[in-house]
Amino acid sequence: MIDFETPKPIEQINNVVETVALNMMRPVSRYYDENEHEIPWDYINFMHQAVKSMGGTSMAPEERPAKEGEQKKKHPPIAYQRLAHMVEMLAWGDAGMYLCVPGGLLGSAAVAAAGTPEQKKRFLSRFAGDKPVFDAMAMTEPQAGSDTSAIRATAVLDKETNEWILNGEKIFVTAGQKALVDSDGFMVVWATIDPSAGRAGMRAFVVEAGTPGCSVTKLEHKLGIRVSDTASVVLQDCRIPYDNILGSPTVEKTTKGFKGAMATFNATRPIVAAQAIGIARATLELLKEVLEENGITIRYGLPRHKMTQTERDVI
Q1: Residues 6+ apart with CB under 8 A from 123
Q2: What is the DSSP letter of 215?
Q3: What is the DSSP string of 220-234?
Q4: Number of helices and strands (H, E) in the chain?
């Protein structure tokens, strides 16, 4: 029999996160929406310490490496339930402010999905530091959109220095400014090591904050979610260590690079859905409040032609 009761540990966390949403997010969300690109550092620092106090280093469930001879254990379902409930409640508070929670964005998801144990330790451990750290993922390009087979950003191996040289332009990079400029973070860049190989040539590369040749060139002015920056990034002869490639450096007949990108999205899509539910719930509650204040009752059983204009708009 399916149990639809919310587990008590999750219910307790929901109460805490709801308090954060009501007291730290909603009172300032309008201000940051009207003052685009201003960063809510008080909130960010609080959330960084809050996540650490719960035993994590980011919003994602912790992955503990299996001991020698031991099979890798999957996260218990409650860990993902807890994360989904937290994201829903934070998005209910404010979608933009939720995206300002340090750690646990698409960049770290890509490292978790395609990185080696050494890479996961090297890149993800920085979220446990004293200062908040952000990550980002750069895939979309001006001429390609999100068509991964049309990506033109290139990665060429310099065998003399054992470095990858990245060239290209990326747009719509969520938290690009925070990851590359405002914190000691990193950005995962999807580029091709063989343009003729299509999706099979796609690979992910980690570009760390402060790397020469990587620059944020533009911050988008948006219609909503303004407190979360959306950046354009240019890579011009950007050199990164050989070990900063996620996955195999050889081109194979399979589409392993593309599968790595899809694994990243597959891991985060339930969280995006939780965010959408939080926004929808906040909208529904606000609509209900406005209707009650104006003494309007929606008569759901009536044919549309017998409804008032307000009722038709709501339906």
Answers
A1: 108, 111, 115, 186, 206
A2: E
A3: ---SS-TTS-EEEEE
A4: 10, 8
Specify if 131 maps to a domain. Answer: yes
Beta strands at 163-174 and 214-219: parallel, antiparallel or unpaired:
unpaired
The CA distances from residue 177 to 5, 123, 151, 183, 279, in Å, are: 40, 18, 22, 9, 24
Query: What domain range includes position 65?
Result: 8-290
Span 31-49, pLDDT tens digits:
999 999 999 999 999 999 9
| Burial class of 97 by CB neighbour count within 10 A (0 to 12, 13 to 18, 19+) | buried
* CATH code: domain of residue 222: 2.40.110.10
State the average pLDDT for the chain.
88
Q: How many CB atoms lie within 10 A of CB 66?
A: 11
> What are the tens digits of pLDDT across the range 195-239?
888 888 889 999 999 999 999 999 999 999 999 999 999 999 999
Q: Are 111 and 122 in contact (CB under 8 A)?
A: no
| 14/247: higher pLDDT | 14
Structural domain total, the chain: 1
Asked if residue 309 is part of any domain, the answer here is no
CB atoms within 10 A of CB 100: 23
Contact by Cβ (8 Å): 175, 105? yes
**pLDDT at residue 269, as a whole number:** 86
